[in-house]
Specification:
This protein is an alpha/beta fold and 415 residues long. It has helices at residues 5-20, 66-79, 87-90, 94-107, 118-129, 144-151, 165-174, 198-207, 230-233, 263-272, 274-277, 284-299, 302-321, 340-352, 382-398, 406-413; strands at 29-30, 37-41, 49-53, 111-115, 135-139, 156-160, 181-186, 211-215, 242-246, 257-261, 332-336, 355-356, 359-360, 371-375. Helix 2 (66-79) packs across helix 12 and helix 4 runs parallel beside helix 12 (284-299).
Length: 415
């Protein structure tokens, strides 16, 4: 045994404490393709139950789209399963180049480099382009993978208050002595669904000779009138220097990510980014499927338009029902509950009503900000949305939170 029985019991006690607080994350298994309706084994060992899925990043329904699946099969047949190599040795196929070119065109960027995930892209990009004498200034709510990537870099790290452009200006004024400056933000913040005011940010970047990097993982494919992302939404497609994004959400739902942007910056990532240099190439199966996704998105806005309509229907229905949701326009809709146990208990009751959602609480979100994060999809139909709203109303009534604001919910349940 690697450690003593007493030490092992101490860890078991920690787990028991989590269970006593009602915050234990039980194992869940999806026993079907990822879709609007799924088969779930929950809790472990229970019979599978068919439920509506309202917590996936499958924003456009491509995770089980028949044309995407056919493209994946074709990629398997024509280019094999895996590359057994990193890109710079013998891990680059012609389809990797094709996907990079497709993404560059779709995002309106000069060049693109593929990574095994967006987390890997975020882990590699900062060390490749920034160093001593430089400064990275980031929104305080950026994604954890951006923070981890910044920590690997020798540049100075500073932050500004969430989406506060006045505070950002002060930080840019403070760091005018630095060799290079880079503003880092999410395009859509994944827990709150906030849209970064990218037009104002780019104005400041121009004024203070500063680069802008946007992680657009929760926007690529469906934000903006043709789904290019937050930079399209704010009409700054030619003013953002770097975009990192994922193929694991709206753009297919499997895995993979990229850095896309100014050609010289992408080239530095190709030469120096460690996750690119030391990770196996993206599987041909995923590459082929993602090329098909980009083709479908380039041909029509039908799915992003449906997602937009679904989002409005759900938000309107939840507001009318008296649930406390964060305002916004994105398909990320936090149902604010503020109490971790309440979020967990309501999610469990929603499952009993045939709706699959998850409670979020510290450390995933700040203490006192517990919620159920609902995510809409183009795969949802009106009947699905209406059933979800009705279930929230029923469960919300059970816990006596309908019509309560933040203060009312906290007075009733605490934080």
């Amino acid at each position: 045994m690697a450690y003593s029985t007493a030490t092992r019991q101490a860890f078991a006690d920690d787990i028991a404490t989590i269970k006593e607080k009602g915050l234990f994350k039980e194992k869940r298994f999806i026993c079907s393709p990822q879709a609007a309706e799924i088969e779930v084994e929950y809790p472990e060992g229970a019979p599978c139950k068919r439920v509506l899925n309202f917590c996936a990043n499958n924003y456009l329904g491509f995770s089980s789209h028949p044309e995407v699946a056919r493209a994946a099969h074709a990629g398997l047949d024509s280019r094999g399963f895996g590359m057994s190599s990193v890109r710079f040795i013998c891990g680059t196929q012609d389809i990797h180049r094709e996907l990079q070119d497709s993404v560059s065109t779709f995002l309106g960027m000069e060049d693109t480099l593929l990574f095994p995930s967006c987390m890997d892209a975020n882990a590699g990009v900062f060390e490749a382009i920034m160093g001593k004498g430089d400064v990275i200034i980031a929104d305080r709510f950026i994604h954890a993978s951006l923070i981890d990537g910044i920590r690997l870099c020798s540049a100075e790290y500073d932050t500004f208050k969430h989406m506060d452009m006045k505070h950002l200006r002060k930080k840019l004024e403070l760091h005018q002595d630095k060799r290079r400056r880079l503003i880092v933000t999410d395009g859509v913040f994944s827990m709150d669904g906030d849209l970064c005011p990218l037009d104002e940010m780019c104005d400041l970047a121009d004024k203070f000779d500063t680069m802008v990097l946007v992680d657009d993982s929760h926007a690529s494919g469906f934000i903006g009138k043709t789904g290019r992302g937050v930079h399209e939404h704010f009409d700054v497609m030619d003013r953002v220097d770097l975009i990192t994004t994922t193929f694991g959400k709206a753009l297919g739902g499997a895995s993979g990510g990229c850095v896309s942007g100014r050609s010289e910056l992408v080239e530095l990532c190709r030469q120096k980014a460690r996750p690119y240099l030391f990770s196996n190439s993206l599987s041909p199966v995923i590459v082929s499927a993602t090329i098909k996704v980009i083709d479908l998105l380039s041909a029509t806005t039908e799915l992003r338009d449906k997602l937009e309509a679904n989002t409005k229907r759900f938000r309107d229905g939840m507001t009318e029902a008296g649930l406390n949701i964060r305002p916004g326009v994105t398909p990320i809709v936090p149902v604010m509950l503020y109490n971790a146990k309440l979020a967990n208990d309501m999610a469990r009751d929603m499952y009993a009503e045939g709706i699959y959602v998850i409670g979020f609480f510290f450390p995933v979100v700040p203490e006192g900000q517990a919620r159920i994060r609902v995510q809409l999809s183009a795969a949802h139909e009106n009947a699905h949305i209406d059933k979800c709203v009705a279930a929230f109303k029923k469960v919300g009534e059970k816990y006596g939170i309908l019509g309560l604001d933040k203060k009312g919910i906290i007075e009733k349940y605490g934080t």
